[in-house]
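Q: Could you write out the predicted structure for this multi-component system? I'm mainly interested in how the pieces pack against one another.
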Amino acid sequence: MGYKAKFRVWRGEGGEGRLEDFTVEVNEGEVVLDVIHRLQATQAPDLAVRWNCKAGKCGSCSMEINGRPRLGCMTRMSTFEETETITVTPMRTFPVIKDLVTDVSFNYQKAREIPSFTPPKDVEPGEYRMQQIDVERSQEFRKCIECFMCNNVCHVIRDHEENKPAFAGPRFLMRIAELDMHPYDTADRKESAQEDHGLGYCNITKCCTEVCPEHIKITDNALIPMKERVVDRKYDPLVWLGNKIFRRSS
Amino acid sequence: MTQTTAENSARKQRAQIKVRTLRTDRWWLAPALTFTGLMTFLVYGFWAIFDQSYLAEPYIAPFASPCLATACPEGARLFGLAPIGDWYTWPPGLLILGLPAGFRLTCYYYRKSYYRSFWLSPPACSVAEPHGKYTGETRLPLIIQNIHRYFFYFAVIIGLILTYDAVLSFRDKDGNWGHVGLGTIILLVNAILILAYTFGCHSCRHITAGRLNHFSKHPIRYKAWTFVSKLNAKHQQFAWASMFSVMIADLYVRLVAKGIINFPFA
Amino acid sequence: MEIERHEYDVVVIGAGGAGLRAAIEARQQGKRTAIVCKSLFGKAHTVMAEGGAAAAMGNVNPDDNWMVHFRDTMRGGKFLNNWRMAELHAKEAPDRVWELEAWGALFDRTKDGKISQRNFGGHEYPRLAHVGDRTGLELIRTLQQRVVALQQEDEKLHGDPEAYIKVFAECTVTRLLKDGEDVSGAFGYWRETGKFIVFDAPAVVLATGGIGKSYVVTSNSWEYTGDGHALALLAGAKLINMEFIQFHPTGMVWPPSVRGILVTESVRGDGGVLRNSEGRRFMFDYVPDVFKDKYATTEEEGDRWYTDQANNRRPPELLPRDEVARAINAEVKAGRGSPQGGVFLDVSTRLPADEITKRLPSMHHQFKELADVDITKEPMQVGPTCHYIMGGVEVDADTGAASVPGLFAAGEVSGGMHGSNRLGGNSLSDLLVFGRRAGAGAAEYVNGLARRPAVSETAVQDARAEALAPLERSGGENPYEVHHELQRTMNDLVGIIRKTEEVSEALDAVEKLKERSNHTASPGGRIYNPGWHLALDLRNMLLVSECVARAALLREESRGGHTRDDYPKMSPEWRRKLLVCSATPDGATVDVEERIQPSMRADLLVLFDREELSKYLTGDELAKYDAVKES
């Protein structure tokens, strides 16, 4: 059942490194992360890889397998030909610490730039009443396991390091959408989504959705609806006029 | 990060991998197909605008409907009207095609497809784009994409007119109801696909109820949103299907008008 | 080499539910707080919790209240629980869940807009607040975002988001530091750089979770190496109930590489049934006497219960976890297992496909992606997996304080709350209730200090030398091999069913492995070197495994998460006794002693029927009950 697979794994510290070749045993039912662990236990004890749950729930083992962002624990070896050489590299958008481990502090920085949930002051814990259909949209976004592969694959920062300060990335634009759609959130997030967090950089090419291991429809359900909400505020004279006439506040 | 990393940030950089992508699959296939498909449409559309044989009663070619000038034959006019008057002698399509074209040009799906296949930004996921600088839709001209919803309003009108045309094609040449030809069916299918594409639009989804935070307080709008969301999930498929159906319907009518297609049930 | 130093009021080790809740509390009480976590912020094992957080809010069944929850918890733990903890837990869990909602959590809703609650094994009423089957993720993300919210507040007030609460991610603590008897700080290393770090802090909250990585088949992630248990032992604190380990009845059994990964109990709560290879719903054969009148005796009654809980008894698939795990174990041993060595858990014939994907989305996803099995079409194969340790640091129920001044513990690393067996859903609420109490306890302790304990330089140097040792040896043992052998030993010899000879054999093996682990060598440098990290974790795993084995050998009865083949009955005498582990002064080995546990407060005792108590308590204790009832 087992066979010997050819692996090319990027190894190095702080950016400099090279692809190293390995031949390693593979057994039935294994995933790429199992093979990386076998390399650690038998050939390269200091091969660095980040992982936790090994069940696709924590989003730690993000890497690029044959050039595509994947979770190592959710990529079955049976999806490859036995003769194929499998190339494993660290996420490209973030600086490398060592081997397959990258410094993802960019994401935590961005998380802190998004204003938190802002409930009305007069609702006490235990008094929240929300209908299931009103929370479902935000619940989809809260499935996010923060593997950061959407931010990694997004060409806005993947191909343009200089855009990092101005662009929160799909993960955190989705967080803005999640809060904006929350039935109890009172903060105004439309203006800042566009001005401070770079929603306009998104050209909806959907790679974030393609790589999402939780199959969240990031583009269709979060980013585009958020863009439309921004249009309401900033680019739609009819809505502006309607609000003036009926004195509605958002 | 929520931790101290500043002291070693200078040392850190991305993995130095020289190649543009390590993908081993045929990632270039999808953008190549998209490019070919969209180019076909553009070339056909350009030809169709200047082609004069757009009426073969009871059929009118979708690219020429509604025909708003006096120069159009009686049967091609919408409700028999010609609001533009007789000064206009250019092809009738030029008057109205800007609206559906604008709708598709600013459509969220088409944006994805041409950003990828024409502008290669990016050509495919995790394949580097060839541009040194990128500002996306943050400034002119691409910030104009935000007017999509206005094109949507007009696209609804055009969609309804094409449906009306399809209904009228159930009459024969003399205006008697009951006719069904291949053209009728083609126009009908096209109208349905166009409507499915139009009402599945992301802006439509937003307008119906997407902009609300309390679906439960607007049950009818929520129902509409649920329906639009279903269409929206297939927006890409409807975009392609309706693009080809409109092309086929248009070509079919013109071929009938030119007498190239002349079998009994045409 | 320069060692990085930080001064804090409270250092929380572990950033799962308990750690984050403790840190939030300490910060809210104005203490400068550090959160130290082994992995990235927001990745802790809490994300794996699926079913929900048990809290008697009574949203679905208004008959539910804290007393019912308290009774269920005690029953589940076979009355070995620290009753004060069970009481506090049952009373405070609703507030802790509601508070999450005010921090942005989005639980599933009932029709009238309240938090929906689901059924779970051992809980009399629907009680688990949940979000599909990813409740743990919701909980940790909410707490993580609460920490961020506090940091944003601090940024506005002080110009520095990390002024009062800071996360040290991918940072591992290897030693607690003391000044005389009191805790004075902690010593650790950054995974990223391998550099050392010293925290100077009068209060340390342990919230490091469990010990599952000492077993081969486990639902636990790599972090679960018993760090907090070992740190507490080495700092002079005591561990209790270490013999009680919960084997979750339903872990995946195939493919081999994911063996042990959890299949949530909600599958059974939502109608899934267990069958053996003969197609029989075997759980009906395994209802123990103490539960006889609470569970259905026919399949028809069990099935009716899902729609009409008032007039029917629940199906035996929903017995507490220890019972179900033992039953599956017995079926497999009797040769009635599934092809890959488990039993069948079937939901495909019980619910329509779209209902399954709606109620159990992650399970559907997990089986599709990992095993290529569509659970809407075919049954799953499941078997027991090491899931949770009931035992842990002995703490004061109200403050989470351990016996060492300045040391606190909360969550899985603390012991007592769950007795001999934890009910599903009680873990998430435990984290919140006792996380908050430990954070508050630590803050109060700091307030009452006359002087700040000092970090001893010698201790720092010793800790440094200890940490560097595996890197400085060459040609020694491969830590991966030692680890693997330990896992096999514990799995085979101190697993679900235990025997005197096997446990003794395990103790000998652990002794030998300890020797080998003193000679591990990790090639490579200090930057993110997993071989080195594992070598350091081995000390903890071995120490904890020794506790488990020693306590398991001493307890001559079967109760909850401890089943002895040679003592298959529950003994009322043993119920009164706790086994307390402590480390010898040099930290080389473990002593275990018996201690009588205080009896339940009278007002709590009378919440139970005499008949039920008579199954658990000794004659003396029952006489006390009668006296209370009389007066």
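A: Regarding packing and overall arrangement: DSSP finds ten helices and seven strands in chain A.
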